[in-house]
Amino acid sequence: WRTASSPVMAESEAAQVPSGPDHSQAETLQIRLQTRLPAGLQVTDTPIEVPNTLRKTGLNEIVNHLLSMSKPKEFEFVVEGELLKGSLKGLMKKKGISAERVLLVEYIEKAPEPENAEKIPTEEWVSCLASLPSGFLVSGGYDNVARIWSPTAEMVAALEGHTQAVKDVATVQEKGHSPKVITASKDHTLRMYALGEKKYSNTLVCRGHTGSVEACAFGPTPEKFASGSYDRNVMLWNTKTSPAPAEADTPQEKKRRKRDNAKRAIGPVATLAGHTDGITGLVWPLNDMLITSSMDQTIRVWDGVARKEVSVLTSSKAALCIDYSHLGGTVASGHGDNVIRTWDPRVSSGAVAKLAMTGHRGMVSGVSWAPDSPFKLASSSYDGTLRVWDIRASASLLTATQHEDKALACSWATPSKIYTGGADCKIVCHELSFPSLERTA
What we know:
The chain has 4 helices and 34 strands. The protein is mainly beta. β24 and β25 form a beta hairpin.
């Protein structure tokens, strides 16, 4: 390879092809290396002339040389939105890119394989997961119980009360206040728990849905939360203003209320209708933006203040899960055709997905954005795997196969820790290690 100021080709570059046509016989093209990594990891933007047969190994050598790395590090390379798997020549042919233009090649951190994947046994299938900023984890299961786990994987509380499987959990923690947890269940109810240091209290039971409650999320303020159900409705709740549910004062209802063991019961403050099939996922990132996924193959955006539908984003298969990146403003959804799609929730109805990422060999059961990056996304699947993606590429950067059955949920808890839960009755803690990349003096 050569730049305008460096006409010398790296000796080891030619050594990578021991037989057959070597790089010296290949046609050349100009590339410009770019990255969104910190300034200390950025190389010159001067075009570099390289053989068109160059692959990831050769590009890694060039970047490491330009960075003067004390110890070689591995990067992945993205060209025209696609992760480079073969040669530059092959990708350019596939994309129909002219050799006359300067090719933009972006390099990103290579995701290492997870280290120390700790497995936490549970009583039943793990259907949902949510993380707290304190490092604690909340899981929900098919044994009708939600559980709180410490950062050292010790179970510190079992949140009981539901009579059927817990399908979703959501958490919130205000500064100076105890954490709160919402659980959604197949028994058509939601429950709210306040967590103390050594105990919890079942503060609310929420009634109104007529089908399994599959999704729940806190709103922009902790007294507001929302739920989505197989009854096709979104319901909005408010711990300060929600009315008592409409219930008959019969002996049967009195027994049920006593069994609830909750301080009080509330009904919804509003019901949003529009979906034509069951709701599977829900996020409420902004006061005026609530987003839902559904079996009806749509992602719907709602105004949480005006309490009306804003737009409908349509896919070709049922949407099974959803998450929102607060850093990038992008929505990710997992689908029944094994595909992950990303969306811009601010566009009008009828817009198509920004990106469709393939790789899973089973339905996508969960998606979770990295807490420190608008580009990194984790996903779980019925194929039993966890995958880590960079949405600037069209292929996953990492695949972890720690589950012995379907992976049903995932939660990216910290920049270096992802949890998954599965039908093998296990929670797996995947430890990621992104080493610090430093230049030599």
